[in-house]
Each structure stands twice: as structure tokens, then as C-alpha cells.
Give the backbone structure.
Amino acid sequence: MLRTGLAALLLIVFLPAVVAANTSTWAARTVLDSDTFAATAERALETPALESLIATTAADAVVTAAARRAPEQLRVLAVQGLGLDASATRAQVSAALADRLEVAMDAPAVDAAREEVIASLHGYLLQTAEGTPGVISIQGDDVVLDPTRLVDRIVQTADPAIAARIDASGFADLDPIVVAQVDALQPVQRAIDLMQALQLIVPLVAIAVALLIVVVAHRRERALGIVGAAVALAGLASLIVLWVAGAYVTRIPTQPAAQTITSEVYDAFITVVRDQAVVLVVAGAVILVVAWVLGRRARRRAVRRMVGPRDSVMPPDSGWSA
């Protein structure tokens, strides 16, 4: 009875341990690794929808700065730079500029500037010195992004003449973009710190608990099957945990464009844990099958031990034998 209770207690510990192990492994493969983080984010940002969104955001930033600091130069930009009528509205100028910028989103110079932003954001999340200084900074309660380098690269690549006109007008110094509130990002940073600290310990703990469950249990084949079912269930639970976390993470940015970008990038990272969850489900199913086969053999051996001695006793000679 004591061994059964201990095995049940270990099983209760095992399920969250496997979920934590799967999540920390996902973090080690993606969030904590700077190269993988950058590559995954880059792939997500290379979709046409997000490239269009980035071009639109860059154009809006330029037009907003122009309207505030040099309104007369904005009209010059509209007429001479974009070929619009002098009566064009800010929205029309921004839309025309976004169309011009969108063609440059795949250029190497723009990719390099985008990588600077990604590396700087990654460095902030991990609280390291990675990334270009000044791209991500703290202003009061806000985490802000300086878009100047990125927008400058986009405009320079799309149309050097427009870039020269913007520089000459004096409105190239763009307003910083609020990425998120400091308080909203702190739980994410703490979670990353925790996963970084436990990325090696938790998987070992999960393996040790699984072995203890099998060793302590009276019926080890059955215990092994329960461990397999728990492994498969943990794979599904990991997806649910990160799906719920995604609902929080994607609401951290304060601007709609940043929320859309964050959602797409987070979804790209989720594909990695989805693959891991599939591996856990398959592994759990294999363990279940192995446990069933071992249990069936054990039952057969037990039956043979019970009926074997009776079958081995010869009936008495009836005298009819030759």
C-alpha cells in the first residue's frame, strides 16, 4: 500500500515535470539561443503581410515627423518625391510612400537593419548587452524602439532621392516607438530567467521520477504504461501552456502593428514546441505499447506457473496401455 501511494505521488510530480522539461527545452532551442531566435524571427517577418505592415509603419513614422517639424517639406516630398498632387492628404502621402518602401523590404541592407532590431530586443529580454546600443531603451515606464536606423535603411534602399530629401528637410529624426510597458515585460523576463536556470535540471528530474515510479510500483508493466500515458499527456499540456502564454505575450505591445508582428513571430516559435509535443506524444504511445507487450508476457508467464504443475502430472496407468 505504501509503495502504491508513493508511486501515485511521484506520478503527480512527474506530469508537471515533463511539461516544464518540454517548455525549458523549447526555450533553450529558441528563445535562449540568439542565432535561432534571430533566424526564427526573421522567417516570420519575411511574410508579405508583415513586410507590408513594416513598410506602412515606416512610412507613417516619416510622414508624422514631417507634418510636425517641416510641413512645407512634406508637400515637396508629396509632389516632387512621390508625384502626388499638392493637395494630397497625409494619409495619401503615407500610403504612396509605403508602396515605394515595400519594394525594398527584401534588400540586404534592410535585412541587416532588421537583424539589429531583433538582436537588441533579444538582448533586452535576456537582460544582456547584445544588440546595437540605443535601438531598445527605457524611457520612464516604457520600453521604446528607435526606428531611425531601420527606416533610414528602408528609405535609402527604396529611393535614395527621397532619402536625401528627407535628410535635407530635417525630419529624419523619428519619434521612438513604444514597444511595451516595462511592468508588462518583467514577467516574461522572469519566466525566461527561470527556464534558463532549469533547462538542464528539469529534464533530469523528469527522467529520475519516471524511473522511480517504475521501480517503486508493484506492477511495473502497468506503471510503465501510466508513465507513457503521462508523457503523451504532457506533450499536449505543453501546447496548451504556451498557447495560453501567447495570449498574454501578444497583448504586451501597446500598438496594433507591434501586436500583429509579435503574434506572427510568437506563432513561428510555437511551431518548434509543437514538433516537440508530437515527439512526446509518439514517445508516450511507444512506451504504452511496450508496457502492454511486457504486461501480456508477464500474465502469460504467471498463467503457465499456475497451471504448469497440474499438466505435468501423468495420469495413473489404467492397464490398457500396450
Summary: Strands lie at 136-139, 142-145, 177-181.
